[in-house]
User: Fold this.
Amino acid sequence: TLSTPQSGLTTEQQQQISAAAQILCAGGTVAFPTETVYGLGADVTNPSAIHKIYRIKQRPADHPLIVHIGAIAQLHHWAQAIPESAWKLAQHFWPGPLTVILQRNRRIPDCVTGGQDTVGLRMPAHPIALALLQALGPEKALAAPSANRFGRISPTTAAHVQQELGPEVDMILDGGACAVGLESTIISFHDDLPQLLRPGGIALSALETVLEGPVLLPHNGQQTIRTSGSLPAHYAPATPLRIYPAEQLWQRAVALAEQDLRILVITWSHNAQSWPALSQSIEQFAMPSDPVAYGQQLYARLRQFDRAAFDYLLVEAPPDHPGWLAVTDRLQRASYH
Ligand code: TXA
Ligand code: MG
Assistant:
């Protein structure tokens, strides 16, 4: 039986959440909002439902999914040998944009983890996601990758999901635009050493403050744990994207425009904004100069720019500052064509 969803939602939303829970219990797929990006969810304990996610996303079977839970205490239900630092982080940041990689127990099927003995878990901070998890009950959880085709830009509105996966998903819950706009921060605890696997919605400095110690940065290239987000090409728009320091941007843009190509220059600094338009085939778009606001908009803007049929997106390199880690990471992967 399905329990009553949380308050704070309209009656219509509550009815949709109940319908979504029934679809999930019957082995279907439901796209749902989280504070980071929209997820494509299925019952974690139902391998045939999990396989639907891989099929819809066209995602290779060895790329593990994040498991979404409705309460911190549910960590016990899916993971074992949970280190103290993982509890600390969960208590401090959940619900919120943080995923912890832990040793899984036998309730997690192989297909969720791509055969690995670890599982990624997070408690999302979105009323609809939490109400959906509550409706499923404490013995269930939602395996959910971002609701986009493998390698493409993650969706930050229900319309993005509709456009990209619409007919293939059993239901899409609309929770408006995602507040964070970039995926969760992923952290692992191999040998009790906290390590950042993917920068995201929680800043590195915030993690280090709570842990009262350093967090290892991702060591690129020689990662032993598979993360699809750690492939070089990911989160990519269809239009080729290149990153240049501010002082090279316009020169590059002009060189491409001379080849009759349509260029969009995407800046964030005030310097860049005062530069003159040198050619009719060069347009400029000013992104926020604050990394959180930049991250919030990034995916929706990339989708918008893709529709505008530019030949190249030239992006002003973000500042070399820890607060920009997540934005820089996504731009670098988006540029890896
Ligand atoms: O914000 C988010 O995390 C969103 C929302 C929907 O929660 N989800 C998301 O899922 O970004 P996805 O599947 O697009 O990315 C999950 C990342 C992948 O890079 C995956 O490889 C990694 O998490 N991951 C999952 N389980 C893992 C594990 N056991 N070990 C290492 N990495 C893991
Ligand atoms: Mg993804």
Summary: The longest strand covers residues 98-104. The mean pLDDT is 92. The pocket of threonylcarbamoyladenylate (ligand 1) is lined by residues 34, 36-37, 39, 63-66, 97, 99, 101, 113, 116, 118-120, 124, 144-146, 183-184, 186, 197, 225-229 (CB under 6 Å). DSSP finds twelve helices and 14 strands in the chain.
